[in-house]
Each structure stands twice: as C-alpha cells, then as structure tokens.
Specification:
It is a multi-pass membrane protein. GO terms for molecular function: ATP binding. The chain crosses the membrane at residues 20-44, 56-77, 127-155, 161-181, 251-269, 281-302. There is one protein chain. By secondary structure, the chain is α/β, with parallel strands linked by helices. The chain folds into two domains: 3-316, ABC transporter type 1, transmembrane domain (ABC transporter transmembrane region fold, Up-down Bundle); 336-581, P-loop containing nucleotide triphosphate hydrolases (Rossmann fold). The chain has 22 helices and ten strands. It has a six-stranded mixed β-sheet, with helices on both faces. β4 and β5 (400-401) form a beta hairpin. α4 runs antiparallel to α5 and α8 runs antiparallel to α9. It is elongated and about 120 Å long.
C-alpha cells in the first residue's frame, strides 16, 4: 500500500524541506488541538468542586482563544505548504509526460491511443496529486495524531480505559486492508474504461462529418451510450467498496464510544478518574473519529494513487525508439544526402516498405518521387526525419550517418508538409508562425504569396486573425494545404519535403506554386512526392517507386523515352486533362 510513496521518493527527496516543515507544522497543530479538551475537563472539575473563580474562568477563556489563533495560523501554514507541494508534483509530472510524448516515435502512438493518454494526463495525475497532498495528511493523522491522542488518553487519564476503548482497532486494520486491495483492482479497471471512452469521444468529434455523411448518428450515440454505461458500471464497483469505509468506521467508533462510556462510568463510580477526566476522555474519543476515518481514507487514496502512478509510469518508462547518439557529430554544411542499400519495414508489418533503396542527392537538387499508392514514398520521408528505428543500410547527410547526427539539428534542416495537414486551433497567423515564431506580417504575406494564398486570405472574415477551428475545420482541403505550405516556406529549410502536399489544389494553382518554388528554392534541396506528374516534371531527378524498390529513375524527358510506368501514367493524365478541357 505504501509503495506509492517509495515510487514518488524522487519528488519527496527534492522537496524534503517543504514536506518536513509541513509535517512538523501539522504535528504542532495536532498537539495544540489536544489542549482544549484538557481545559474543558479542568473547568468541569473546578465547577464540580465549586472552586472556579472569575479570574480562573477569564484565564481559561483567554487561553482558549489564544490557542485557537495559534492553531489557525499553524494550520494555514501546513495546509498551504503541503497542498502547494501536491500541485507542484502534478505540474512536474504533467510536464514530464508532455516532454515524453514529444520524444516518442509513431510506434508509441500506435500502442497508446490518444484518449487513453489524455486520461493518464488528467484523471490519473489528479489521483497522484491527491496522494502527495491529502495522502500525506491522512498518513500523519492516522498514525502520529492517533498516537498522540492515545498517549494523552493513556498517560493523563487511564491506560485501562484507553486500551479497552481501542479494542476495535485491530479489526479495523484487517477490514481496511481487504477494502484497499479491492479498491486498487477496481480503480484500475475504471480508469482503463475511462481512457477507452475518451478515445471514442475524440474519434467521434474528429469524424463527425463522416458519421453524418453515412447517417451513423444513432449508431454512434448507441456506441457511446454503451461505453458510458461500462464506465459507470466500473466506477459503481469502486463506489461500492468506497461506500463501505464510512459505515465500517462508524460501527467501530460506536463500539469504542460504548466501551468508553460504560467502563469510564464504572471508573468514575470507583473514584479511579474524575467526572472531568471522563468528559475529556470522551472528547478525545470524538477526536479519534477523524484519525480512524483517516485510516480508511489513507488506504483508499493510496490505492487509487498507486494504481494511477502505475499507469503514468508505464508511459514514462516506455523508452524512445529513436535516441540521440552519446556524442552527436555536428554537421557544418549540408552538401549531400545519400541512401545506401536502405531496407526498412514497420515494426508491426511483415513486408518491407523499402528494399535496396539507393539515391545520391546534391545540394540544391529537386527530387520528384512518384509511384502507386503504398509504394513507399511517405515511408522514405519518415526515415529522412528519423521517425523510426531499425533501418538497414545507411542514410547519410554530408557523409555523416543519420544516427550520429543530433536529432534536433537534423529535423531543424527539414521543412515537412505531410499528406494530412495538421492545423492548430489558432489563427492563420499563429499556424504559419509555427514555422518561425518571430515572423512579421510582412514575412507571412510573402510566404502566402508563394503558397498562392493571398486571394483566399482577403475573403476570410478576419484575415490573418481568422480562427481555423479544431484541426482547421473552417478551411477547405486546398486552403489547409496552402497554409501548411506557407508554414514550411517561412522556415526557409535546407531540405523541403512535400508529401503529396498539393493534391487538393487545382492544376493552375499547383503550377503557380511550383513556379514560385523553382524561383525561391535555388541552392536548396527539395523532395516532392506526388500522384500528378505535372508536380515533378521540373525535377532534377525523378524516381518511380514500386513496392519499395526503384522501378525507374531519370529526368522527365529520360523517363518519357524509357516508355515505362512513368510515361504511361503521364499520357493517361494528359488525356484526362484534355477531356476535362474539351
């Protein structure tokens, strides 16, 4: 049960001063809280023996008020110190998770779904934070505070009465242990179900237009209803155990009260203790209610926190598939890129996506890559970005193997426009500035001209300040592609990768973008993957990929002369364009 504190020792070691102060302050506040019942018992005895004077009463009242003020001040200090520490832990862990996500490769995101990762980053972190705050409080109260009360009861009133009143405690320890094990198992299942539901909601929101187009609203509602029912049922299983804590505590506390009152009254009749001592003893028994409840709360919180911490640590312990070399080599100037007998297959695949791939690219060249769907074009680009491990052969930049180059430097060279453009839920200006955070409006308008987006921006209601909505929902496919192009252009990368990045624009717009590219990308390397041959006709080298192998290579005129796949595809597209024009 206490393993969760050991797992968090890295945090407690770093903030040990904060927690030592909070615990000492908490214990001081608890100790001060033990004085008022003694004052009450003393006052009752003085009343019984008719020795209470006005002066003594005034001293008691003033002392009580002073104790209350000191108790309040110390309680504020431990409360603030302890729970702000829990907030720091939550912030740290959330930052570690975010940094971890950013370092992960696509393999990781294939294993863990977005909704589940969100559940671990929200609900589970709250449970961990509760452990570091309220969990420490209940630990101190259920141990030190309880021992302090028991000690005062035993030393200042009667050990016999104290031992008799605490007989139910061992029973409570056994019962709470059983409850704790059940809470841990059921809470793990509930959190997993919540992660599944989260993922389902994300998929439904992202695919809402597809759901409507296929008239699947009712089915999706039913699927979501089934999942919420499953989450509800699993949480109810947790609540059923949780609900047993309080009545169990009340029964045990009731037994303690019964013993305390019955046996205490006998001791008063026997003059073993005074009436004031009996009243004080029962006040202390009342004060024991919270520490006894705290035992149950402690088990509950620690088991939830332990389960959540295991889920978070499972993600944090996942090692990055792609790591920096221990001593990365700095590449001063990027003059060439070489692929030498490159073979690659995805971890979950049984077939090779690239086989025996060889290519030499000089600085400033434009490389066109064409081929059927699934030929390996996108895979090639992902390897250039070093998104996957397990590459056979070598990919070298300026003669230095990719694995020896710092990942940040490598990706800093590259401007990447993928097939599926990612738009952030911000303004168009902010989406473009993602490529260069300090870019001025003048620079933004310049790259929008290159991406042939100036006419569109004039038609949008707020120009550059137009919100694009979730994943760019307010923009058309062609507009999203051109904003993504502008974002890559503004970076002025050494290597520009366009992965079918103009598939949603018309031929005239594509021709203008290509024209701008040829003018602006002089002495810089460009890779263009496309299904339309018109997008790569100007390239210095054109590669035809088929099942991960280079089927044909050469310039446009050379490939036409080869009379192979490229020429057949080019002729077909020319014929289609002629039919459209006619």
């Amino acid at each position: 049960m206490f393993q969760v504190f050991k797992k968090l020792d890295w945090f407690f070691k770093h903030y040990w001063k904060r927690y030592i102060f909070a615990i000492i302050a908490l214990m001081c506040a608890s100790a001060l809280g033990l004085i008022p019942p003694k004052l009450v018992g003393f006052a009752i005895d003085q009343i019984q023996y008719e020795t209470l004077t006005k002066k003594l009463l005034l001293i008691l009242v003033v002392g009580y008020l002073l104790l209350a003020f000191i108790h309040y001040t110390i309680s504020f200090l431990w409360d603030y110190t302890l729970f702000s520490g829990a907030a720091i832990l939550e912030r740290w862990t959330r930052s570690r998770l975010m940094g971890h996500f950013l370092n992960m490769s696509p393999t990781f995101f294939g294993k863990y779904r977005t909704g589940d990762l969100m559940a671990r980053s929200t609900n589970d972190l709250k449970a961990i934070s509760l452990t570091a705050g309220f969990g420490v409080l209940t630990l101190v109260d259920s141990s030190m505070f309880m021992l302090m009360i028991v000690g005062v009861m035993g030393f200042t009133i009667s050990w016999k009465l104290t031992v008799a009143a605490l007989i139910p405690l061992p029973v409570m320890a056994v019962v709470m242990s059983k409850y704790g094990a059940a809470i841990h198992a059921r809470f793990m299942k509930a959190q997993t179900a919540f992660g599944d539901m989260n993922n389902s909601v994300l998929e439904s929101i992202r695919g809402v237009r597809v759901i409507r187009a296929f008239v699947q609203e009712k089915q999706d509602e039913q699927r979501f209803d089934d999942m919420t029912r499953d989450v509800y049922d699993k949480n109810i299983e947790v609540v059923k155990i949780d609900a047993l804590f309080e009545p169990t505590m009340k029964i045990l506390v009731g037994l303690s009260y019964t013993v305390g009152l019955g046996y205490g009254a006998m001791l008063v009749f026997e003059n073993a203790i005074t009436l004031g001592d009996l009243v004080t003893f029962n006040v202390y028994l009342g004060m024991l209610i919270w520490p006894m409840f705290a035992v149950g709360e402690l088990i509950n919180i620690l088991q939830r926190g332990n389960a959540s911490l295991d889920r978070v640590n499972e993600v944090l312990d996942y090692e990055a598939d792609v790591k920096n070399a221990k001593s990365p080599k700095l590449v001063e100037e990027l003059s060439s890129i070489d692929f030498n007998e490159v073979n690659f297959q995805y971890p979950a695949s049984n077939i090779k996506q690239l086989q025996g791939f060889n290519l030499h690219v000089n600085k400033g060249e434009t490389i066109g890559i064409v081929g059927k769907t699934g030929a390996g074009k996108t895979t090639l680009f992902k390897l250039m970005l070093r998104q996957f491990p397990g590459i056979e052969g070598s990919v070298s930049y300026d003669g230095v193997e990719m694995e020896r180059i710092d990942i940040a430097q490598l990706r800093g060279w590259i401007g990447y426009v993928p097939q599926d453009q990612i738009m952030f839920s911000k303004t168009i200006r902010e989406n473009i500035q993602f490529g260069k955070p300090d870019a001025s409006d003048q620079e933004i308008y310049r790259v929008m001209e290159l991406a042939h987006f100036l006419d569109d921006i004039k038609q949008l209601p707020n120009g550059l300040d137009t919100q694009v909505g979730e994943s760019g929902v307010t923009l058309s496919g062609g507009q999203k592609q051109r904003v993504a192009l502008a974002r890559a252009f503004i970076k002025k990368p050494e290597i520009l990768i366009l992965d079918d990045a103009m598939s949603a624009v018309d031929g005239k717009t594509e021709a203008k973008i290509i024209q701008h590219l040829r003018r602006e990308r002089i002495n810089k390397t460009t890779f263009i993957a496309a299904h339309r041959m018109s997008a790569v006709m100007h390239a210095d080298q054109i590669i035809v990929l088929n099942e991960g192998q280079i089927l044909e290579r050469g310039t446009h005129s050379e490939l036409i002369a080869q009379n192979g796949w490229y020429k057949a595809q080019y002729d077909m597209q020319q014929l289609d364009e002629g039919e459209v024009k006619s």
